[in-house]
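[09:14] KT: can someone run the structure on this one? pasting the chain below
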Amino acid sequence: MPRENYLFTSESVSEGHPDKVCDRISDAVVDTFLAADPLSRVACETLTTTNRIVLAGEVRGPDNITNDILEDVARRAVKDIGYEQDGFHWKNSEVSVYLHQQSSDIAQGVDAAGNKDEGAGDQGIMFGYACRETKALMPAPIHLSHQILKEMAEARHSGATKGFGPDSKSQVTLQYENGSPVRATSVVVSTQHDEGLSQDEVRELVRPFVEKVLPNGWMCPEEEFYVNPTGNFVIGGPDGDAGLTGRKIIVDTYGGAAPHGGGAFSGKDPTKVDRSAAYAGRYLAKNVVAAGLADKCTIQLAYAIGVSKPLSIYVDCAGTGTVDETKLEGALSEAMDLSPRGIREHLELSRPIYERSAAYGHFGRTPEDDGGFSWERTDLVEAIKSALT
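[09:31] RB: done, structure tokens below
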């Protein structure tokens, strides 16, 4: 029996966190290649530290995307985040580009040829999840943690709130009763800030954003509201701590409320199932819950490099389902082609839509008119129901 009364905590990090700066740059590189050629292949890793940005990995795409262009892409991403510090500045940082051509061994396994369909870009397992805790069908702790930082970032960018720097983290602990979240028991926000602001001043800058995001009556006790617990946070971003692409995989997904296959998303084109199959898993789980077939749904997909069909599909509704999970597995396979090509085409993933996903979660977002966050649509409900009949 699942526990019904407990505390659960999730954290988020802002677009200015060192690792998220790297995710943003890597996804900006992906978008640059996909905008030039939707069939481009990209696996880009980024490292940031004090006034240095390093891009590495492998690509297959138009030759006219030069290292100079990619350097400009990196600088523009950093500028948009808002870094103009002595230790990390979009204009003054040294940018090194070490991207090379994709391995021919990988290419021959992934490409379609003759009677062979496009294969998975790697082996691995991917998970999708959805639940009824929020309107976005996301676990509440991670959803609220994201929203606090997103609201703070929007106020910083617009100039509505002065004093915030780009780097910040949040953490929300919720009390669950009878399996549902009912209140926050603690909230932690650490944010980079202007020189000269006291801890109490930063606390009062942060407070309205927390109170706005938490549902009415959910605010934690004052003694459990922690803002910049170390007391000072002026030096931040890659100047304070090195960043790497792909180090925030739990922040990117469900905040620890669901399993994770271990593969990161950012910097990868949609032939990489680490990314596309995780999106498909979320899409399927969300549609299962939206269809009223379960209150919670976890889906696992498994792939082998170079093989087009998934090796397995597993569904677990945690005892909340209204149909047999084995039947649901078959229905999902019927409702959607889960080959790498099928996922890519169904969700229209070969578009430059990824830079925007690099911060504040890949899931629980609003589908956009140009195809961004297409995996958040609930347009598969009827197909799943039909496949069950």
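[09:33] KT: thanks! The longest helix spans residues 18-36.
[09:34] RB: yep, looked fine to me
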